[in-house]
Amino acid sequence: MSQGRAAATVWAGAIALLAVVAVWPLARLGMEAFTRDGVPSLGNFAETLGREENLVALRRSLEVSVASTVLSTMVGSLLAWLVGRTDLPWRRFFRTAFVLPFLVPPFIGAIAWAYLLGPSGFANRLWMAASGASEPFFVIYGPVGIVLVLVLHGFPLVYLTVLGGLERMNPELEEAAQIAGSPAVRVLREVTLPLMLPTVLAGAVLTFTSDIADFGIPAVLGFSEGYFVLPVKIYQQIARGFGDPNSLSNAAALSCLLLLAGTAAILFQRSLLRGDRAQRYAVISGKSLQPNIVRLGRSRRWLFALAVALVIVTTVLPVLAIALSSLVRAVGLSPAPENWTLEHYADVLTTLPAAGRGIRNSLLLAAGSATAIAVLGALIAYVVTRTALRGRAFLDLAASLPYAVPGTVFALGVILAWLRPFPDIAFTLYNTIWILFVAYIGRYFIFGVRTTAASLAQVHGGLEEAARISGASWLRTFRDVVAPLVLPGLFAAWFLVFIPTLRELTVSILLWSAGNETIGVMVFNLRESGQEGPSAALSMVMIALLVAANYAARVLTRGRVGY
After folding, report:
1. Among residues 6, 77, 216, 511, which one has the fewest Cβ atoms lying within 10 Å of its Cβ?
2. pTM, entire model
3. What φ, ψ does residue 39 adopt, rounded to 5°?
């Protein structure tokens, strides 16, 4: 088969694949939102916006997301500056340690803080015992707790984004300010931050879109207080409303509101950096430059202590709380060794069939979707980067859409697309494990395309040309020449899909069915049913799997993927 014909075949297949797993669910969601009783209508929006509880949920989503974004941006930017520009002790350690909250799924983090600062949490019991108080020091449930936990899991996004920008920024203006005698804080405030505004805003928008779409943290910390945000209301609409013929249509309308909020944040960022304003940032370089390190002076010790405290609060305490909760025989007992037991681990690994299925299903789904995306993404990346076929830009756009929208929105689109895809045929993926597989592929497909495309950019086209001159077909050239050269990129793509799908909850909570549970769904369901010990034990199993996957990713990709 000639190169042109083979590429065209791959292109056609890619169009069909992305249309099925990515474009059609979102199109179906839009159709459902603007359809009522089978006819085009704005009735769903009228009913949705006419309910005060939905408007309250929208307002609360905006409140907690804006508050957490502002705080995450402040914390993440400061930490990036400390690691990238100062003489903070143990900078190499903190460079990785500040990212560790990513290894703890947000909803697991929320559960951990409930174990610490719930009404009978470890920290509150310790406070009451030490002070003699009859009331807890602070209860994590409610909007303040939601914001705090969102910040603890959101600041790494800003930190990573700003740190990358600092490493590419020309440091000459900072050095000039230092030579002129400006103190470190003034250099940060008047030189570094203004120059880094585009990068800071990019991190803030990433955090906002992640926070406003988050289901797990508000669900864990808001349900008991009756504090519902928009993703939780969408979940309730779907889970409780199948008796209402318009329930999915109303949920689609709610999803459009969620999508609109995220889109507005992106447009706001772009409007701030439009036109001449972008010229202010021309000093940001495309190459890595070594800046003069800012001396922290007297502030060095307390900033170091603050950094250590942050690592303890964001990583050590949550994991310790989950570990102790998984070992204590019953909720409310002291976490002393005499109250420890391994019964909860025995329950989730042997006694509770659903927990074992959750572990098995998550591993199979994560490995299967990662493998499919790595292989198919490599083929599509080749078409996008190595051919001149018309419409290839559409492939990249179509692959990006499912990850660009909130997970709740995409999950609802998948339900609508596969609940009854062929009205005249009794076929459905709903209530099967395959709907999770299709959803994971659609949601994370862009990781395979972008990661492999970056690797292909480093492979000289002359090697492929030599193979074709020697008579090799396009398929053999791709298999024997291209694939081995981009193998590190394929490994990276595989792990970039495997790790988030293994810890996934937002999409899975809407798509799972009896017998097709995932580990994230089981952790959530066990806790909601009052089985705190097994939930904590399964959480520790999940964290162990994620740590092992992260370590394997770092070893096999030589540090390109993982923390």
Report:
1. 6
2. 0.87
3. -130, 150
Strands 35-36 and 39-40: antiparallel
State the maximum Cα–Cα separation within the chain, in Å, rounded to a whole number. Answer: 84
Name the strand (E) or helix (H) holding 35.
strand 35-36
Cα four-point dihedral sign 315, 265, 449, 419: positive
Kindly give, in sequence order, each residue whose CB lies less than 8 Å from that of residue 380, ignoring residues fewer than 6 positions away. Answer: 10, 14, 18, 395, 399, 448, 449
Is the separation of the CB atoms in 439 and 264 below 8 Å? no
Q: Give the whole-angstrom CA distance, residue 460 versus residue 204.
A: 37
Closest CA to 156 of 90, 96, 82: 96
The model's pLDDT over 36-57, given as tens digits with 9 standing for 90+, comes to: 877 888 888 998 888 899 999 9
Judge contact between 362 and 521, C-beta under 8 A. Answer: no
* Residues in Cβ contact with 75 at an 8 Å cutoff, skipping those fewer than 6 apart: 151, 155, 158, 159
Which among 403, 447, 408 has a CA at the least distance from the CA of 29? 408
Residue 2 pLDDT class (50, 70, 90 cuts): low
DSSP code at position 36: E
Half-sphere exposure of 234 (CA within 13 A, CB side): 36
Residue 298 class from Cβ within 10 Å (0-12 exposed, 13-18 middle, 19+ buried)?
Answer: exposed
Q: What is the mean pLDDT of residues 76-82?
A: 91
Please name each of the domains of the chain with its CATH number. Answer: 42-301 (1.10.3720.10)
For residue 39, the cross-strand partners are 36
- Coil, strand or helix at 347: helix
Asked if 116 and 140 count as a contact pair (C-beta separation under 8 A), the reply is: yes
DSSP 283: T
86 three-class SS: strand
pLDDT digits (tens, 9 = 90+) for 430-484: 889 999 999 999 999 988 888 887 777 767 667 667 777 777 766 677 777 777 7
Question: Do 376 and 448 meet the contact criterion of CB atoms below 8 Å apart?
Answer: yes
Tell me which residue of 413, 552, 554, 440 sits closest to 503, measured CA to CA.
440
Average pLDDT estimate for 367-387: 85
- Of 316, 229, 283, 238, nearest in space to 54 by CA: 229
Closest CA to 3 of 399, 526, 471: 471
Spatial separation of the C-alpha atoms in residues 541 and 285, rounded to whole Å: 43
Element (H, E) at 66: helix 52-85
Task: Enumerate the β-bridge partners of residue 35.
Answer: 40
Residue type, 157: L
Residue 288, pLDDT score: 47
* Contact in structure between 520 and 213 (CB atoms under 8 Å): no
> Is residue 497 a contact partner of residue 449, using CB atoms and an 8 Å limit?
no
